[in-house]
Design a protein that fits this description.
alpha/beta, 2-enoyl-CoA Hydratase, Chain A, domain 1, 2 domains, 10 helices
Length: 262
């Protein structure tokens, strides 16, 4: 069974984590397959949005611990797993030159939760739960968790989530600002697909530059961010989609964006 499923909808695609018998926990095979899927989406100019979700009753339970257990009883080097797989995955998602929507269809635990938070817009079924489960086995939140959580919800909540490893509901996650919206379970995929289809009609180059600006704002000074906005706006103003947006506005019609750089 393929560990990653790809449903190409033309201008956008669905990428599904597909190890439902293991709550879509990551093993090395799934890491490689997801990396290929994201790289293919990044390189396809016709693909203008990506929707990430999970098969079965859960989104992702994080790392499949049986895949990193040392057979001879020696302590594993988990830093190798982080460096080889999880860090590149989060970097791929954050740097992808088009929107990444995440539809969390059940439990998102450990790295599974933080991979979801790394996406651009996150929807979750009301029955979904998010768990920073690392402390339960003596580990530290990874996959960007210690960077993302304080910035999304503040130090107090981030510390409690990380140290107590207690689950929070999709409603709480939405109220705290961890995700965009909690959706009735039966409507999750239809709403997520509609959102992906909508974003695939928008000015893709401009959306990619929004991602870049927001990402760099976390470490930039105000002066540096103002300069970045200037540079990105100059670049955005030279895209065909800007010209089309202005023409459509002046003509009082719907714009027909192509998403092309030129």
């Amino acid at each position: 069974m393929d560990s990653i499923l790809i449903d190409n909808r033309g201008s956008w695609r669905i990428v599904t984590l597909n190890r439902p018998d293991r709550l879509n926990s990551f093993n090395e095979t799934m890491h490689h397959a997801l990396a290929r899927a994201l790289d293919d989406a990044a390189g396809d100019v016709d693909c203008r949005a990506v929707l990430l979700t999970g098969a079965g009753r859960g989104f992702c339970a994080g790392q499949d611990l049986s895949d990193v257990a040392a057979g001879d009883g020696a302590a594993p080097d988990l830093g190798v797993t982080i460096e080889k797989f999880y860090n590149p995955l989060v970097r791929r998602i954050r740097a992808l030159n088009k929107p990444v929507i995440c539809a969390v269809n059940g439990t998102a635990a450990g790295a599974g939760a933080n991979i979801a938070f790394a996406c651009d817009i996150v929807l979750a079924a009301r029955s979904a739960k998010f768990i920073q489960s690392f402390a339960k086995i003596g580990l530290v939140p990874d996959s960007g968790g210690t960077w993302l959580l304080p910035r999304l919800i503040g130090d107090a909540r981030a510390t409690a989530l990380a140290m107590l490893a207690e689950p929070i509901t999709a409603e709480t996650a939405a109220n705290w600002g961890l995700i965009w919206r909690a959706i009735d379970d039966e409507k999750l995929m239809s709403e997520a697909e509609a959102l992906a289809a909508h974003l695939a009609t928008q000015p893709t180059q401009g959306l990619a530059m929004i991602k870049q600006a927001l990402a760099q704002s976390a470490t930039n000074t105000l002066d540096a961010q103002l300069d970045l906005e200037r540079d990105l706006q100059r670049k955005a103003g030279r895209t065909p989609d800007y010209a089309e947006g202005v023409n459509a506005f002046m003509a009082k019609r719907a714009p027909r964006f192509t998403g092309r750089p030129q």
